[in-house]
Amino acid sequence: MPCCAIWKKPSAPGSATTAVPPGPSSASTSWIACSCAAGESVSAPVQEPRPLLICLMGPTASGKTDLAIDLARVLDCELVSVDSALVYRGLDIGSAKPDYPHHLVDIRDPDQPYSAADFAADAGRVVKDIVERGKTPLLVGGTMLYFRAFLEGLAAMPAADAATRAAIEAQAAEQGWPAVHRELAAVDPEAAARIHPNHSQRLCRALEVYRASGVPISEWQRRQADGGAAQRYRLCQLAICPRERAVLHRRIALRFEQMMAAGFLEEVRALHRRPALHPELPAIRAVGYRQLWHYLDGDCSLDEALERGIAATRQLAKRQLTWLRKWPGLNWLETDAAGNVLPPPRSHSAVEQCVEDLLQRALNFIGTAPHQ
Q1: Measured between alpha carbons, how far is 119 from 114 in angstroms, rounded to an integer?
Q2: What family is it from (predicted)?
Q3: What CA–CA distance (Å, rounded) separates 245 from 254?
Q4: Residue 263 annotated as binding site
């Protein structure tokens, strides 16, 4: 008879249907408890020498932070932030910085750029330390480039060059970023096809690499170095997102409203007063911060800034979902408006259904629906 996976919170020793969630302390063997229709309980050992690494991804406002916190409490994980805004000190309200401890939060000042290569190196050290202390690392966030850099590794492409970048930014100020995009398309059509003409940071980096080396960034990426974390760890990759796009859009608008009520404008105003900060820095280009910065510069009204901030957040979520739909080995956890996990939209094989039931039952530990 078919069986479904059951993963219950550890209770009394010797419970026939209790499976201890796998972690570094049991890296050599992980256990899945299956309950058959006949009432039998079968535990099947799966030999796996690599330690477990959990990755929880999702678009902004999907509920991933609250879910990660609840899973960390149940599974004895340590959280590692995968978010390009949370690395910066002083970007608190607008980045929805969590109170629960995360690694790689508040590690840079806003005038200090932080790259995907920086993240890959920092995350490598942090994850290794977590595993060595007998805990399970859980990476959570929505900066997909950081996930890719850490999991797949990065090619040894040219380092950032301030003079080249300044020249490209001056060109963009005079001609516009679409003109810079056309130049990139002429020398690296593959990269240009992946980068939106208004995505200034990625566009600048791609052209900077070509000008510095004469080799397109797409070619550097094909030479990608071996040794990404995906080779060293046993991955469990999850993505959480409302099934209906309208639900996500409502959450984005509500969260922006809540951030404004919590003092987001005052936070940006304090950053705006600091002479070392300017709108071309990656920290200030973060969604929400850029739009309020333009308001403080007198470029638009506050209502226009809020409208643009919400629209930019929706665009960010759309880009994140584009990444996620192409991401290999991803287990989707779709939610309803209340944050409850929905059943899969289509049937699968018995083995796949077993895994899906395991994931959903693990989420039953959560007492309240995720809301952030």
Answers
A1: 7
A2: Belongs to the IPP transferase family.
A3: 14
A4: no
* pTM score over 0.90: no
Domain boundaries, the chain: 162-222
29 labelled as ligand-binding? no
Q: Is position 35 annotated in a ligand binding site?
A: no
Does 63 count as an annotated binding residue? yes
Cα 276–chain centre separation: 28
Determine if residue 368 is labeled as part of a ligand binding site: no
CA–CA distance, 82 with 89 (Å, rounded to integer): 15
DSSP 160: P
What gap in Å lies between CA 6 and CA 29, rounded to an integer?
18
Residue 108 pLDDT > 50 = yes
**Nearest CA among 3, 56, 47 for reference residue 22:** 47
List the single range of 31-45, 48-62, 132-146, 195-209 with lowest mean pLDDT.
31-45
User: To the nearest whole percent, how much of the chain has pLDDT over 90?
Assistant: 53
25 labeled binding residue: no
Residue 337's pLDDT band (boundaries 50, 70, 90)?
confident
Question: Mean pLDDT, to the nearest integer, of 21-46?
Answer: 36
How far, in Å, CA of 361 to CA of 355, rounded? 10
Is 58 known as a binding-site position? Answer: yes
Question: What CATH number should be reported for the domain whose range is 162-222?
Answer: 1.10.20.140
Q: Could you give the CA distance from residue 46 to residue 185 in angstroms, rounded to a whole number?
A: 48
